[in-house]
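Re: export button greyed out
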Amino acid sequence: MPKKRSQVNDIDRSLYDIRNSEQEAERLSAGLTPQIVREISKRKDEPQWMLDFRLKSLEIYQSMPTPSWGPALDGLDMDNIVTYVKPNTSQQSDWESVPDDIKSTFERLGIPEAERSYLAGVGAQYDSELVYHNMQDTAAKMGIVYSGIEEALREPRWEELIRSKFMTLIPPADHKFAALHGAVWSGGSFVYVPAGVKLDFPLQSYFRLNARGAGQFEHTLIIVEDDADLHFIEGCSAPKYNVANLHAGAVELFVGKRAHLRYSTIENWSKNMYNLNTKRARVDAEGEIEWISGSFGSHVGYLYPMSVLAGRRSRSSFTGITFAGAGQNLDTGCKVVLAAPETSATVETKGISKGGGVQTFRSSVVATPAARDSTVSVSCQSLMLDDISRSDTIPAMDIRAKNVDIGHEATIGRIGDDKVFYLMSRGVSEEEARTMIVNGFAEPVSKELPLEYAVEMNNLIKLEMEGAIG
Amino acid sequence: MQNSFAAGATAQEAPKAITVNAMPAATWGWLKMNDAEAAVPAHLASAPNAARLEVEVNGKTVNPTRDADAFERALDSAAGRYALAQRLGAGDAAQQPSRQSATPEKELDATALSSYQSGALDLERTYTPARAFKTGMGHEGFGYLSEVSRGPHLIAAPAHASVCATLHVCGAPGAAAVGAVDVVASEGSNVSITIALDSPDEGEGIVGSAVRVLAGKGARVSIACIQTLADGYTALDDTGMFLAEGAQASVRHDVLGAGASFTGLSADLRGDESRATVNVNYLGARSQTRDFNYEITHRGRNTESNISANGVLAGESKKCLRGTIDLTHGCKGSQGTEHETVLLADERVRNKSVPVILCDEDEVAGNHGATIGHIRADQLLYLTCRGISEDAAEELFIRAKLEDAAIAAPSRAARAGIVRLGKRMFDDFEESLGEEIA
Amino acid sequence: MHSIETPGTAAIAAKPIETPGAAQAYTSLASPGAQNTALLDVRNLAASADDMQILHGVSLSIGKGETHVLMGPNGAGKSTLGRLIMGDPSYEQTAGSILFDGSDISELSPDKRSRAGLFLSFQAPVEIPGVPLLSFLRAAASGRFGQGLRGRKLRARIEELCDELDMDPAYLDRELGVGFSGGEKKKLEMLQLLLLAPKLAILDETDSGLDVDALGVVSRGIDAYRESCDGSLLIITHNTRILEHLKVDRVHVMVDGRIAAEGDASLIPWIDRNGFESFENASLSDPCCQAGDDINACPARTPSASASSLPAETR
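Workaround output, generated via the alternate export path:
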């Protein structure tokens, strides 16, 4: 385990809360206008089609209503959000060239150390731009491409591919914040794994939003060709401010035939963040997408990774945990579309709410007529840690295929007094006992994470549980 | 327009549509599950004497009265004992700055509740139990039914009395036939109501019932509604219940006929130890649509609810079932369970299910489960090995549903309706069944 | 382990199975003089599931009113044979024929075979929620007995059978198989056997051999079936206790998807004492067929296992 990380054990959240002074090179004015969109595009020296795409997306954004079914978005005023903040550096491929304050932030988060010990490649974004991107030579020799998406867009070799995929899984008209993303997206990673290539070590992108009142809109595009295999890790955090920050990223994943992609996220945004992120995967025949998702931060979260099972016998599994503490309303879950025969999907989620926080599991399972002989199993458990919090479960199923079997179960409850008593009778303090039980509750998720992240998650839980007895 | 249907309206008349069965906590609009639209053609006249109500109190037949305000008066007085919520739930001012008083600096410390979540808080905070009363179909649906019914009949059960009632609503071609009943079940009384929504004659029209129930302390109310309409009809069956301490409600809905049916039930478990049990049996065939909204709100302590739905969908039928267990703040010790089993007997059917649990209390248990499936290969093999072909197997499931309903039918009229419906589908239905129950 | 190392024995052993003439001779060996009146005549049946060959040329013939027993170790293919005769689509019939009542039923779906007079009991009947037992029985019986047995009369008959099998008639209104105990499931199978009165009942009792209660139910069912109609029986088992007090006409022993031995009822106590090991050995090292040399040692005639391969004490 990286040393810096272990500090989470005994210090508070301040690790994530380190704020650097905002010595950014550039900060566009707040708000959202065609002028701002043009400014962003100009700075990126991107093809004309992309500018057109951005402007079209902006129009869609302005014509779409704000979602009415989820957590209130009243506190998010787009006129106050700065959509583009350029850090005071260009993208580097060695940490020594990264400015000291930014480098030290990532060092405290343990990124360079993780890179040395077990990652095959790392991308680090700071506000609107990538500040670091590097991949080990071995991975490069296998033909794997892992770079900034804007960088790839400037290469004729990738431009066409990106153009053919970009925002096709998440079209701007999908929802208001997808449109916003289309208009002001900036930064993010591009990964291409050639057919048959299996990467043993994960790639990781880390997103850090430092600027007050800013938005982060990175776009992640991953293409895993037939028979290839990749594990991708995404991490994110931000220091806390008393104004709203916004994250509206987009993740588009293309999983080829018999290919496998595992996408792990530990989301730990600060509690002034509106996290309106969209993630989607399209899976071809016999391919598999695995989502591992931990949501801990944010003031408001709307997050429902979606799997589109487009090929025969393709598979999806979603394992997620959401922990909503004071002041948080985290509306999370997943969407599954079964659109081919003999597909299968499993969903296992855990939700915890505490201290007045609200946690909602929301899902949709849609089996189209093409999805004959498919199976779905959904299991959703929620834990209430006190009586001032809230936990809702809103799963929807729409089935119109032949021979589809859907099993769904959900439970809501609290920690059994008998369990706490049992542990306490063996000499464990009440706080420890509860933490232990909550960790056990989260175990199905943490066991799916790389060790370092499992430890981080347990620490986050421990942090949240401190002072939970009252 | 979602869940719209042509029955009851010819193309040239613009059918009036009402929005019914909205689930309390909405989800994505693109799923088209949040609510339903029922076409209620304006030209349909209110059928005179369509509803026949027979009431027996302690074994003696009594004449039911029409008194539109009696229920509200009784509810006001019964509900007056329950104070507005003092302790509030998530996002409450006691824990954090309320949304109204938040300064910009503190605004992000308050939980950003969804419109449903804040609405639920407001409801507990500012609505008297009488004002919070609602039916499963919602105001628009209940309003329509009330209007067509020309006011409710009152079934008043004196304390500890035993009351049996049957409401027979008979559909008439080209008309809207609705029976409305208000039930005031005093302390310790036992009320059993059978409702038959039936159409002896084929045709097009609307047949419905609107039932409001106030179950006093320890009262037991059971309602069985059997709907056996011909395909030309639309069924609208709406119920709202208020349960005081220790009251028990048991509801059975058999939705067997009608080209389109809408069923709503809302139960307010206000009193401690009150309990509601709901059994739903439905059958969808041909191009029928079925739409359901069940809402059980747990407010008292140690309350219990159980929703169990069991259905068979065949042909090109469509169904949407919303079931919400709402464990509100303060309902400590309560439990809500919901289970749905759907058998899809044809690949052209469309099934939608949304089993929702809303939970604003920690010392509670909420469970739901759903099993949606087709006839499994091993089940089909077993049936075929006993001489039942694949087509016959599908028929068996439909027939079994009808036979089961006939066996459980609480009244002769209801049974006759089921037999009539069965005969439309199976030539020998009456013969095999009729002899048996004769 | 005795075995005679004879080169090429495998080919010889396979011969009677693959040569129609030999199979015919073998059939007559199984049921002397029965080939013309056979109710069920399985010839050279080969079958596979998921591209795995399970049965390798099985022949077996059952005459009207006869009781046959199919024995053999676990995994020998006994249940597969039963399922194949009934037409389970998860097995593919790759060769051979199944003649029932004079016509080839290989192409018929299971419901047609059932209506032709075949019955297969299931070791574990499925659960079918939403279908009351009575509705199911009515559908199964529908059209079989003409106008004579339907409606009220059918129910009366079913209740009579419940009584005979000591089964609570309340089960009739319960969902098929749901929440039934093992014993109740067995009763349910026997109830259907008696109600449908098939010409041939294949009772797959591979798993019930150890359960005393289930054994009692099955025995009672078999007795009632034999009494009520002169039906034929094929009982599949690897435990001989179920066969006590039963008049068995013929015993077939299956090993590795082949009929390894056949004989009359006296083979049962012999297997009871000696198990199936000798047949398994025989089938593994297949000595040349020398049946007849020492036939009294083991009451089996076998096309593939010679007497000399049987344990010494049986000679």
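The first strand of chain A starts at residue 26 and ends at 27. The button fix ships in the next patch.
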